Amino acid sequence: MAFIVRPVGKEKAVATEVQIYEGALDKGLEGVVACSTAVSSIQGNTLNFRGYTIEDLAQNSTFEEVTYLLWNDRLPSAEELKTFRSQLVSEMELSSDYIEVLKKIPTQNVHPMAWLRTAVSLIAHWDTEANDMGAEAFKHKALRLTGKMGSIVCAFEAIRNGKPILNPKKDKTIAWNFMYMLTGTEPKADHVKVFDTCLILHADHELNCSAFATRVTASSLSDLHSAIVSAIGALKGPLHGGANEQVMIMLKKIGTIEKAQAFVKDALAAKEKVMGIGHRVYKNGDPRAAILRKMSEKMTKEMGEPHLYTMSALIDDTMQKEKGLMPNVDFYSATVYYSMGIPIDIYTPIFAVSRISGWIAHAQEQYANNRIYRPRGKWVGKDGLKK
Ligand code: COA
User: Fold this and answer.
1) pLDDT digits over 176-192, tens only?
2) What's this model's pTM, rounded to 2 decimal places?
3) Ligand 1 atom 3: the closest Cα is on which residue?
4) Domains 55-238 and 243-339 alike in fold
5) CA-closest residue to ligand 1 atom 37
6) Those residues with Cβ within 8 angstroms of residue 212's Cβ, 6 or more apart along the chain or in another chain
7) Which CATH number is 55-238 given?
8) Among protein residues, the one whose CA lies closest to atom 28 of ligand 1
9) What does 72-109 look like in DSSP terms, one character per residue?
């Protein structure tokens, strides 16, 4: 792959002339290295968080442990993890003042991601450190935002259904509390494990669209809440986090195994995107999808709807044969969430509940070594017009 790399120090030597790189314009910055990062890396089809493979973390960690890793560049000791978990969970509760305002935000005909974007922006108004750019304030806000993200999503679900907003249980994890507050019942231990693994798999992903949005906003030295709101806006789109919801809608529309292959062929003939398939970086498979595929097979069988997995696998195989494209993280996560009874439009908000950990790590890295993002536009408009 060809990368476009800015020559170090060049623009300082030629102060009046900044070199313009004209390659990759209008191509979504494909192949452009936009910054250095030590948060996560993709090499071939290997994904690492801070040096640990995603397979290792998914198998042997918890979401809280992975969050600590992303923010601190090392795994916590048992004692550190205990403290970190209790700090996070103690930030999960939403204040009654804030809830009163949340209840006034319309929920009908509003996508949960749009509601979440507003709710996260609002929470800054109760944060006395919102504009404090110091390192200590950053840590507090990181804990608050990460702790509260899941509670806000569950508050949305409660408000739109006219149900009470539940408080988290202090001795439980983020995964447990999320499932409890979303459904109102204590979740099964094996479902909590599956959900926690999903949170780990979605926690970070190098310079994806929403991480980049976080960094762009942080690079103007805007505050953390603003950076996270930018990220939520970017994640909402169907080409990024919004795809998991679209996968489930697609599977429901297809309906039966028999119709799956024809659906894919028709979509390709019409030049339509098959959701959850393809990736800008992975061309030989997304390692997260491989883990989720196994989880989807097991969970759909357990739920008594194994055809959902069979249909997904058929779409996956057909896309590989017809177009050489493989599933991404959103493809099999859809049926995993569906098997746990999670409402379809909550899938993308769940992505945010997890990815906030990565966004914060990227914001932290950006603030620590900042230069404002200010690329150039190649002028293709009219010139010399007169009124
Ligand atoms: N379904 C059908 N065709 C697809 C496709 C999909 N999901 N993803 C890519 N393609 C096709 C493109 O149409 C293009 O075909 P062409 O060369 O015949 O014109 C080719 O594959 C290259 O795709 P391109 O759009 O350049 O990929 P990209 O790197 O710009 O986009 C994605 C990557 C992820 C945005 C894209 O694959 C996509 O839209 N996938 C569906 C949405 C999704 O799942 N998003 C979640 C990402 S984690």
Assistant:
1) 999 999 999 999 999 99
2) 0.94
3) 273
4) no
5) 278
6) 34, 234
7) 1.10.580.10
8) 280
9) HSSPPPHHHHHHHHHHHHHT-PPPHHHHHHHTTS--TT
| The one catalytic residue among 202, 240, 279, 362 | 279
DSSP 28: T
Output the CA 140–ligand 1 centroid distance in Å: 38
List the residue whose alpha carbon is closest to atom 9 of ligand 1: 278
CA angle 140, 144, 148 (to 5 degrees): 175
- Give residue-wise pLDDT tens across range 40-84: 999 999 999 999 999 999 999 999 999 999 999 999 999 999 999
Between the CA of 221 and the centroid of ligand 1 the distance, in Å, is 33
Closest protein CA for atom 36 of ligand 1? 278
- List Cβ<8 Å contacts ≥24 apart for 232-237: 232/113, 232/116, 232/117, 232/120, 232/352, 233/117, 234/209, 234/210, 235/113, 235/209, 235/210, 235/348, 235/351, 235/352, 235/355, 236/111, 236/113, 236/114, 236/117, 236/348, 237/209
To test the pocket of ligand 1, the residue of 323, 331, 355 to mutate (highest count of ligand atoms within 8 Å of its CB) is 323
Annotated domain spans of the chain = 2-48, 55-238, 243-339
Q: Which of these, 136, 349, 361, lies nearest to 227 by C-alpha position? A: 361
CATH 1.10.230.10 holds for 243-339: yes
Query: Residues 264-322: pLDDT tens digits?
Result: 999 999 999 999 999 999 989 999 999 999 999 999 999 999 999 999 999 999 999 99
CA 346, distance to chain mean position in Å, is 13
Residue of 277, 347, 351 best suited for mutating to test ligand 1, as the one with most atoms within 8 Å of CB: 277
In the chain, DSSP assigns E strands to 40-43, 46-49, 52-53
**Catalytic (active site) residue 279:** yes
Task: Using alpha carbons, select from 351, 361, 353 the residue that is nearest to residue 39.
Answer: 361
Q: Which atom of ligand 1 is nearest to the CA of 280?
A: 29
How far away, in angstroms, is 273 Cα from ligand 1 center?
7
* Ligand 1 residue neighbourhood (C-beta within 6 Å): 28, 239-240, 243, 273-280, 323, 325, 328-330
